[in-house]
Amino acid sequence: MASSRKRRVTASVTVAxxxxxxxxxxxxxxxxxxxGVLTTAAPVPEPAPFPxxxxxPAAPLVAALDPQAPLPSxxxxxxxxxxxxADVRTGGDVGVVVEDALTGQVLVDIGGSQPxxxxxxxxxxxxxxxxxxxxxxxxxxxxxxxxEGGQVVLVGGGDIxxxxxxxxxxxxxxxxxxxxxxxxxxxxxxxxPVSVAVDDSLFSGxxxxxxxxxxxxxxxxxxxxxxxxxGLAPSGDYRADPALAAxxxxxxxxxxxxxxxxxxxxxxxxxxxxxxxxxxxxAPLRDVVAYMLEVSENSVAEVLSRLVAVADGEEPTxxxxxxAVVARVEALGVETGAVTLADTxxxxxxxxxxxxxxxxxxxxxxxxxxxxxxxxxxxxxxxEGTLRSRMPGAAAGVLRAKTGTLTTAVSLTGLxxxxxxxxxxxxxxxxxxxxxxxxxxxxxxxxxxxxxTACECG
Length: 458
Known about the structure:
By secondary structure, the chain is α+β, with helices and mostly antiparallel strands. The protein has helices spanning 2-23, 25-30, 74-86, 124-134, 178-189, 242-256, 285-295, 298-311, 318-331, 355-367, 373-376, 438-454, and strands spanning 94-100, 106-110, 115-116, 141-146, 151-155, 195-199, 266-267, 276-281, 353-354, 399-405, 410-417, 423-430.
């Protein structure tokens, strides 16, 4: 085989030599034996044109909003809402407000100014307040700084959705990783022995809101500015001290990076002007807000409210956070005189918010680009979050809303494009329900929402 290849090469060289002698370099060029512009080889065919699509593009599932779409009849919508109020399933004590999203015109107002227990619909208030106070692009930084005597201090900045595993790029939960933070610290300290402390002094006051107890504690962590996976242990229970648990996970991550970590994880304030050894950042605030609204995350709602308090110079306690949130919402132009907040996650029946306030806050979020995440972050009926298994009919896919459910209250605050293309903002709050009445009341509210969606209310 080798001799055959050698003969072919020799033959090629011989032909090239003869061509050069007979016709010079041009002849060899034409025979493709030396580089050049001449050739006797067949030309390479032009590539076939890229196939053009022959089918028409599919129509969008939901048409773009048309500002010329007709405004629905206020009297027709009011009649539907009066039926909801009269429905025995809602108990008769219901506030209903419907507004035109484009103009803010109120189309329905049945008891809309009366304070009622909003349940988790109240989360719209800290959502808007946080976006206004901090900005939609704001990120929450978790840092590690040099303490005294070889101590590394883990400083909580409000991100309670950290992971102790691999960072989840593009996600909200686990966007920032303690492993990544530990790798940065290990690179800075180059094998020095360390101890670990936690600084969670960004917040103050009690860890639980006055009035929380019993079943409430199954749905919210102790409120601190630092936690892994919102304080949840692998068992599904909330950790008694999420900040210290995050510190322990950070110490383990440092060990995995080869550092010698001694002693127990303690609490210590970061020294003034301490050298930063590393930092990790949360997802942008707009995404954190969207996650909080979609799954109705109580702990995140409370933390966001504390961050508003910090930004506005209020005390970072439950009371201070409530004052800061209400003040922010009022400064944005919403009347809050009838609002009382005992917490900002909606766990307590002592929260009192009129349906009109909830609707106005959502309309405001649609009007201002920096607040819009409080509207676009709402779950879609039949598809996402707390609405995934609700409203399989006309409202599915076209209605977004914040749900709210307590043992004696049901609420739904959101927006929907009706069948004629008009975008409507609505809020329904039914409280003082009898024990066992929540399921039927919620079904009645869902039916009303589907009727509003499908109503050709000319």
